[in-house]
Write a structure and sequence with these properties.
It is a single chain. This protein has helices at 2-7, 52-69, 109-129, and strands at residues 31-35, 38-43, 75-80, 83-88, 91-96. The chain is α+β, with helices and mostly antiparallel strands and 130 residues long. The radius of gyration is 14 Å and the shape is globular. The chain starts with a helix and ends with a helix.
């Protein structure tokens, strides 16, 4: 787990309508992660000292790096303590936390992560077309 935390350091954290240690307030609606004009995931929950914006930006950078390096583009999810990890070609990209789930009918972290992988797969294929 420590290795995953270190690998995802810039991709983890967030806050939904709460103030962080620096007093910044995160939007209750969350921070969207958009790749190739596609909404991959919305970060809403805190994790450590990182804001939702930090998590979204970290995930975006991880995804862009993975797209540049990735050969197969296989997306997967894996249960982690407190959430579900989203990967591409075995590389961790971000984690979906319970606090990231929409308020109404949000499903589970696994369902939201699986939905993110389907959109991520489309974005990956489109990145290969250019």
């Amino acid at each position: 787990m420590t290795a995953v935390l270190l690998a995802l350091w810039p991709a983890w954290a967030g806050a939904a309508g709460t103030a962080d240690a620096a007093g910044k307030v995160e939007p209750a609606a969350g921070v969207p992660l958009v790749i190739g004009h596609r909404l991959i995931h919305t970060f809403r929950a805190p994790l450590g000292a990182f804001t939702a914006a930090d998590r979204a930006e970290g995930a975006r950078l991880h995804i862009l790096k993975a797209f540049a390096e990735s050969r197969e583009g296989w997306t997967s999810v894996r249960a982690q303590d407190g959430g579900t990890l989203v990967e591409i070609d075995g590389k961790p990209l971000f984690i979906v936390l319970p606090g990231d789930l929409p308020q109404l009918g949000g499903g589970s972290t696994e369902q939201v992560a699986n939905a993110a992988t389907r959109v991520l797969q489309k974005a990956w294929r489109e990145s290969r077309e250019h």
